[in-house]
Specification:
Elements: H1 17-20, E1 29-33, H2 36-45, E2 48-54, E3 61-68, E4 71-77, H3 82-96, E5 100-109, H4 112-115, E6 119-128, E7 141-143, H5 147-157, E8 161-169, H6 177-185, E9 190-192, H7 195-205, E10 208-220, E11 223-225, H8 229-234, H9 236-246
Parallel strand pairs: 1-4, 1-5, 5-10, 6-8, 8-9
Antiparallel strand pairs: 2-3, 3-4, 5-9, 6-7, 6-10, 10-11
Helix pairs in contact: 3-7
Length: 249
């Protein structure tokens, strides 16, 4: 059935032009932010201007632009989960012209020994969600094309990191011991909820995605450790790494 989701032969029924008019070209780089604390820190500490707005019946998402070391960079607070994060990414591209997206957030570690004290640069993601199957032919994994370049940037910045496969899921509550064991056996070092969908959308529309993660909670056969999740969600260090990445892409 999953093979039936991908249709590139016929035209889409819904087009963003109906909502936002012609696509705009305002900036080329954009941060995808998951933490409201990080998002609000930017608004409170940098000069920011509103350059777009995504409208929805349950609330609007404002797209802002700021300047960092002479570089104009857009940013917005995204929804959680692959369907929301991927659709919003394309709507932001339509309204701003951004083609290079830097996405950074927290994740669950599947190997605390590997991820402790390091950011995670995903190399591929297990497609345990549904969104990616509408944008790419059915397969177990999707490659993260910028992983090698991002690793080079982390080396330049002297920021500790580890590369490896991750697992994108739609359902945090169904990360069972059996599924955790399977993904770990395949080499996955973390689990999160957006990457496979956003990567597939970016590939489909010719956009470039740079993604890195910070592990907070830990999933293992012996149980679930939540203590580090809040710090991983809102650690401002991720913001400055993301801004420095934006200067180098």
């Amino acid at each position: 059935m999953l093979k039936d989701f991908y249709d590139k032969e016929t035209e889409p029924v819904v087009n963003l032009e109906a909502f936002y008019g012609e696509p705009k070209k305002l900036t080329d780089k954009c941060l995808i932010i998951f933490s409201k604390e990080i998002h609000d820190y930017l608004l409170e500490n940098y000069s920011c201007e509103e350059i777009g707005i995504i409208t929805a019946c349950n609330g609007n998402t404002t797209i802002y632009q700021t300047e960092y070391k002479g570089e104009k960079i857009a940013f917005y607070l995204t929804g959680i989960g692959a369907p929301m994060a991927s659709a919003t990414c394309y709507e932001v591209h339509w309204q701003t012209g951004a083609t290079k997206f830097i996405m950074f957030g927290s994740c669950g570690s599947l190997d605390a020994d590997v991820s402790a004290g390091k950011f995670i640069v995903p190399t591929k993601s297990y497609r345990g969600e549904g969104t990616s199957f509408y944008y790419a032919p059915a397969d177990d994994y999707i490659d993260i094309k910028t992983a090698d370049r991002l690793a080079e940037i982390f080396d330049e910045l002297k920021v500790p990191f580890v590369k490896g496969p991750v697992w994108t899921t739609d359902s945090m509550l169904r990360e069972t011991k059996g599924l955790v064991s399977k993904r770990r056996a395949e080499g996955c070092i973390a689990v999160e909820m957006e990457l496979a969908g956003v990567q597939a959308l970016c590939d489909f529309y010719g956009l470039t995605l740079y993604d890195f993660l910070e592990a907070g909670d830990v999933l293992s056969d012996s149980g679930y450790e939540i203590e580090g999740l809040d710090d991983a969600n809102h650690n401002l260090g991720k913001l400055f790494v993301a801004l420095d990445i934006a200067l180098r892409i």
